[in-house]
């Protein structure tokens, strides 16, 4: 299973529905235990990054604050907050692919000609 591709598709679908970019999938022992997308706007919560949301879900599912052994797939380079959370969760590996959304692409996904400043 290509978890990175799944993460990219999760992100693209979320952006297509109006969300901001940033998706994360957490895998433990070849099983997806959590997903998260950027919900800053929807939740009015500046900490609602996809990685933070997925870490919270994974901790709940695995009943542990220590996520050692998990692999965290993200579409954006973790920010300082998410990187800190990954550190404190003791995640070993977090492959990241930087998905660059062109303004025209976001506009197309939103059904607009182009996105304003
Ligand atoms: Zn972040």
Description:
This protein is of the alpha+beta class and 117 residues long. The radius of gyration is 14 Å and the shape is globular. The mean pLDDT is 86. It has five helices and three strands; from the N terminus they run αββααβαα. It binds zinc ion. Zinc ion binds at residues 49, 51, 78-79, 81-82.
Total helical segments: 5
Amount of beta strand? 5-15%
How are helices and strands ordered from N to C? HEEHHEHH
Helical content band:
40-55%
Radius of gyration: 14 Å
What ligand molecules are bound, each kind once? zinc ion
User: Can you summarize the main beta sheet?
Assistant: 3 strands, antiparallel
Tell the overall outline. globular
| Main β-sheet, spatial strand arrangement | 2-1-3
Q: Between the first and last Cα atoms, what is the distance in angstroms?
A: 39 Å
Strand elements, count: 3
Q: Give the rounded overall mean pLDDT.
A: 86
**What structural category do the secondary elements indicate?**
alpha+beta
The unreliable regions are none
Give a nutshell description of this structure.
This protein is of the alpha+beta class and 117 residues long.
SSE inventory with pairings:
Elements: H1 3-16, E1 23-28, E2 31-37, H2 40-43, H3 50-62, E3 71-74, H4 80-88, H5 103-109
Antiparallel strand pairs: 1-2, 1-3
């Amino acid at each position: 299973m290509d978890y990175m591709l799944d993460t990219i598709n999760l992100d693209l679908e979320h952006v297509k529905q109006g969300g901001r970019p940033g998706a994360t999938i957490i895998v433990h022992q070849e099983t997806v235990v959590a997903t998260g997308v950027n919900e800053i706007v929807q939740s009015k919560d500046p900490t609602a990054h996809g990685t933070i949301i997925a870490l919270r879900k994974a901790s709940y599912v695995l009943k542990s604050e220590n996520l050692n052994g998990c692999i965290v797939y993200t579409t954006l380079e973790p920010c300082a907050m998410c990187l800190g959370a990954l550190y404190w969760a003791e995640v070993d590996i977090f492959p990241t692919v930087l998905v660059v959304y062109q303004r025209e692409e976001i506009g197309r996904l939103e059904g607009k000609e182009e996105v304003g400043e």
